Amino acid sequence: MKGKKCFLALLLCVFLFSANALSVSFQLVQKDFSQNEIRAASYVIEDTMFEYFFDKGIVVSNLPILIYKNENASDLALINSVGESRLGGINYLVSLCAEYDVSHSTNPEAVSLDNISNISWKIINIDTDEVVTKGEEKKLDVQKKSNKKDALESFSYLVAQKIYNSIRSNL
What we know:
4 helices; six-stranded mixed β-sheet
């Protein structure tokens, strides 16, 4: 009987802890003047973010990847994304902007870091509607790898680390 009570108390603690888990939603904006479709590289960036945050024990969700060619459209999408995140009970919205530049690319359709100039982000606290922090990472700060997809994943992982550290420092 005592074992059952301990088990039930432990189970209750597990449920209480998971009810208070940190939740983050990602909105990836593909800023690309040459493309009207979502690039495979954008999915790689999003997948890397998901894996990184999930491995850290954070509840993650996403909003659809968007393609924009100007800033005004992305600002309106951000307002909509905050509202959707609020309805979903999310703590933080991370708005990522992957800027593509394929003007000098030999293979613009490739899943390659070579086609991305930088990734910038805004972290928004959904409860307060405040931008907690902003950041930007240029691809030059990442060591080149022979496998283009590995280089993109490493770059995305570096961005995920910076975003995670920013969120943790603001708790």
